[in-house]
């Protein structure tokens, strides 16, 4: 397997009005092609910051961040991001939102008809063909999030980065989208890094769960390998002792070893 | 309102919803009287129609009362008669000092159009740049904050001095007084473009042109239109005063002229005309703003 994303002794420090805030410390991470990583940890520990480093939206203060052996300098469409709040452009239709990325990535080498086809296919992939001409404010929260995922997928990124993509959704919609995501990821063999604070979601979706310690100077406390067979079925897993064992390991990390900071409790 | 009642009524147990008893009572009575769609519409129309009409009638009555108790203020009826004569032939032309009210209105609109148009042409791009570049914002901040509160007419002597003629001077006054809201609102709009949208642009690696056309411009447009609306309001306020001072054909000078002739009916008509045109300008822009807003 190929090493795809590599973080080498990465430190992140923010200069704030109150002085320097040491957010992440000595992060070492290596992600292979086709792997599904989740980042989990208490609120404010630095999950988004870590994801943004891979995305290139945030620079590491020290250390090296590499993608395909090259240093990550700024964001780019090969590392597509699904934002926490979907961030669809409200003045564009669902189709146009997705087309914007497609045009950027494939516009130089493909004719317009092909770009159109790609956009429609991705809309179909997330089951939103009927919402093609709708604006984001005309569709539900779950649909928006699916368009956000479609926008990222349509660019055929080498890594798909997702910051709590289902955080704002109700449990039913969330389960539904998790199932869809599993199918899409299996079909496209995508490499995924996803931030979550939902333990079940992490165990259900991941190959590896990266558990972050509390900040300041948060670092990787433990990386758990989830060796459940794929494809996974949430109902079958409910009675799987190994699933519960993995789940309790994450819970133990979060609630025994990394108790919520007193201020946040 | 009816939509609220609708959703409440469609729920099987209204009691479970935490409504104060009086309100749930009124919900029930509302439910018991089925209303046809037509009736509902008529009632809506009356609710929308009656209060303004009442207000206007009260205003006219008050005006008539005041007119009766003073001996030189014309009442509504003589004014109406005079307006009928005036608007029977709005576009006559008997030399530079005696033209129909239509010409006067058009000349004023023309001056506002030029001055305001120039202000938009310069103010909106300038606002974009001030919003985008902190350095430019810091550079222009002191000048803008000093010049913005200056009363529009204070600019008239400068205009007369530099431009020599009355016509361009009044356009200059419109220009300088309507440019500030457009600069400031555009700049604020650019500064308020959510970071998320700009992050989208960065991840998609959009070209500067695409960033502008797909993200900055649509995101800022509502702010720009607010600026434009404020500006046109100011421009129309100022033109009447500027024309009073500069003379020529225009609604402002016309008012002044009628004052010299002591034709008070015409002054009152002019006040209404100015008000109605200002209202139309503003409503037109609100309509445009609504068409362009994506919310
Ligand atoms: N631009 C910034 N400037 C200063 N401090 C920052 C900045 N961005 C993040 N931080 C700080 O770094 C820490 C980590 O932030 P981050 O957003 O990565 O947390 P998170 O784990 O994603 O939290 P959450 O689960 O609430 O989204 C926080 O304490 C935050 O206050
Ligand atoms: Mg976060």
Describe the protein in words.
The complex is a heterodimer of chains A (265) and B (295). With 265 residues, chain A is an alpha/beta fold. Chain A has two domains: 33-60 and 71-78 and 161-265, P-loop containing nucleotide triphosphate hydrolases (Rossmann fold); 88-156, no CATH class. Chain A has helices at 47-55, 94-106, 112-125, 141-154, 171-188, 199-205, 234-237, 241-257; strands at 3-16, 19-32, 36-40, 62-67, 70-71, 79-82, 159-163, 191-195, 208-212, 220-225. In chain A, helix 2 crosses helix 3 (112-125), helix 2 (94-106) packs parallel to helix 4 (141-154) and helix 6 (199-205) crosses helix 8 (241-257). The radius of gyration of chain A is 19 Å and the shape is globular. Chain B has two domains: 20-68; 83-291, Orthogonal Bundle (MetI-like fold), CATH 1.10.3720.10. The structure holds adenosine-5'-triphosphate and magnesium ion. Residues 14, 16, 21, 23, 41, 43-49, 197, 215 of chain A line the site of adenosine-5'-triphosphate. Adenosine-5'-triphosphate is lined by residues 14, 16, 21, 23, 41, 43-49, 197, 215 of chain A.
What is the CATH superfamily of the largest domain in chain B?
MetI-like
* Radius of gyration from the alpha-carbon trace of chain B, in angstroms: 26 Å
Amino- and carboxy-terminal Cα gap of chain B: 21 Å
Query: From the 3D coordinates, which CATH architecture of the largest domain in chain B would you assign?
Result: Orthogonal Bundle
Rg from Cα of chain A? 19 Å
- CATH class designation of the largest domain in chain B: Mainly Alpha
State the separation between the terminal residues of chain A, measured CA to CA.
42 Å
CATH class of the largest domain in chain A: Alpha Beta
Reported CATH architecture of the largest domain in chain A: 3-Layer(aba) Sandwich
Give the topology string of chain B: H per helix, E per strand.
HHHHHHHHHHHH
Strand count, sense and barrel status of the largest sheet of chain A are: 6 strands, mixed
Helicity level of chain B: over 70%
Beta strand count of chain B: 0
Shape of chain B: flat
What binds here, in terms of ligands, is: adenosine-5'-triphosphate, magnesium ion
């Amino acid at each position: 397997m190929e090493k795809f994303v590599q973080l080498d002794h990465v430190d992140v420090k923010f200069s704030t009005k109150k002085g320097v805030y040491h957010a992440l410390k000595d992060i070492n991470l290596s992600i292979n092609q086709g792997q599904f990583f989740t980042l989990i940890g208490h609120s404010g520990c630095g999950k988004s910051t870590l994801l943004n480093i891979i995305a290139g939206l945030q620079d590491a203060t020290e250390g090296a961040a590499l993608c395909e052996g090259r240093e990550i300098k700024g964001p780019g469409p090969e590392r597509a991001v699904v934002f926490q709040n979907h961030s669809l452009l409200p003045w564009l239709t669902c189709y146009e939102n997705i087309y914007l990325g497609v045009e950027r990535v494939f516009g130089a080498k493909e004719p317009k008809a092909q770009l159109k086809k790609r956009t429609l296919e991705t809309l179909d992939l997330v089951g939103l063909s009927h919402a093609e001409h709708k604006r984001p404010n005309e569709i539900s929260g779950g649909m928006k999030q699916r368009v956000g995922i479609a926008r990222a997928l349509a660019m055929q990124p080498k890594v798909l980065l997702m910051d709590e993509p289902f955080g704002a959704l109700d449990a039913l919609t969330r389960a539904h989208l998790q199932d869809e995501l599993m199918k899409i990821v299996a079909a496209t063999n995508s490499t995924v890094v996803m931030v979550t604070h939902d333990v079940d979601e992490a165990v259900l979706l991941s190959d590896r769960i990266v558990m972050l310690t509390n900040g300041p100077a948060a670092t990787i406390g433990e990386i758990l390998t989830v060796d459940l067979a794929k494809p996974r079925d949430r109902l079958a897993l409910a009675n799987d002792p190994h699933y519960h064992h993995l789940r309790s390991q994450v819970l133990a990390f979060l609630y025994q070893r990394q108790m919520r900071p007193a201020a946040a409790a | 309102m009816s939509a609220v009642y609708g959703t409440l009524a469609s729920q099987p147990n209204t009691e479970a919803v935490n409504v104060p008893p009086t309100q749930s009572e009124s919900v029930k009575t509302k439910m018991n009287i089925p209303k046809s769609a037509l009736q509902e519409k008529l009632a809506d129309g009356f609710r929308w129609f009656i209060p303004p009409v009442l207000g206007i009638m009260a205003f006219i009555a008050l005006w008539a009362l005041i007119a009766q108790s003073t001996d030189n203020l014309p009442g509504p009826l003589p004014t109406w008669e005079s307006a009928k004569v005036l608007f029977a032939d709005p576009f006559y032309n008997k030399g530079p000092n005696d033209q129909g009210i239509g010409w006067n209105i058009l000349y004023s609109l023309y001056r506002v159009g030029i001055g305001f148009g120039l202000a938009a042409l310069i103010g909106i791009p300038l606002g974009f740049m001030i919003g985008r570049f902190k350095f430019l914002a810091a550079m222009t901040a002191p000048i803008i904050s000093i010049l913005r509160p200056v009363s529009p007419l204070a600019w008239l002597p400068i205009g007369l001095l530099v431009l020599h003629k009355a016509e361009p001077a009044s356009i200059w006054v419109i220009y300088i007084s309507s440019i500030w809201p457009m600069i400031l609102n555009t700049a604020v709009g650019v500064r308020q473009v959510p970071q998320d949208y700009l992050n989208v642009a960065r991840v998609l690696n959009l070209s500067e042109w695409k960033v502008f056309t797909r993200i900055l411009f649509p995101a800022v447009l509502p702010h720009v239109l607010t600026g434009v609306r404020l500006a046109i309001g100011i421009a129309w306020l100022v033109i009447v005063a500027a024309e009073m001072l500069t003379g020529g054909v225009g609604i402002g000078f016309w008012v002044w002229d009628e004052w010299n002739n002591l034709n008070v009916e015409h002054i009152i008509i002019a006040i209404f005309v100015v008000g109605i045109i200002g209202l139309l300008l503003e409503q037109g822009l609100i309509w445009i703003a609504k068409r362009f807003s994506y919310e």
